Amino acid sequence: MERDNMGRPYLDWKTAEEFITDAFAGVGVPRDEAKICTDILLEADKRGIESHGCNRFKPIYIDRINDGIQQPITNFEIVKETETTAVVDGHDGMGQVIGYKSMQMAIDKAKKYGMGMVVVRNSCHYGIAGYYTTMATKQGCIGITGTNARPSVAPTFGVEGMFGTNPLTIGIPTDEPFDFNIDCATSITQNGKIEFYERIKENVHPGTIVGLDGKPVEGDAGEALKQIRNGTAALTTLGGIGEALGGYKGYGYALAVELLSAALQDGAYGKALNGKDENGKKVPYHLGHFFIAIDTNHFLGEDLCRKKAGEIIRSIRASKKAPGQDHIYSAGEKEYNVWQERKDKGVPISEPVQKEMSKVRDDLGLKYVFPWEK
Question: Which of 321-339 are b and which e, b meaning 16 or more Cβ less than 10 Å from the residue's Cβ?
Answer without folding.
Answer: eeeeeeeeebbbbebbebe
